[in-house]
What we know:
single chain; alpha+beta; two-stranded antiparallel sheet; 2 helices; 2 strands; globular; binds iron/sulfur cluster; oxidoreductase activity; 4Fe4S_Fe-S-bd; 4Fe4S_Fe_S_CS; Ferredoxin
Amino acid sequence: MYCGECAGVCPRNLIEVREISLNFNEEECKDCQICLQVCPVKALEKKE
Ligand code: SF4
């Protein structure tokens, strides 16, 4: 639903919320998983 909660908590500011998508800088991600925890609809998941 692109509420932007994940973008607001990323300590590295790696998530950009767009109108119908998320832009995510995977190379800079430190895998803290805060963004996964705050999503109210559990829309994010870790890529194995
Ligand atoms: S897991 Fe990556 S994208 Fe998510 S909050 Fe942490 S650093 Fe940011």
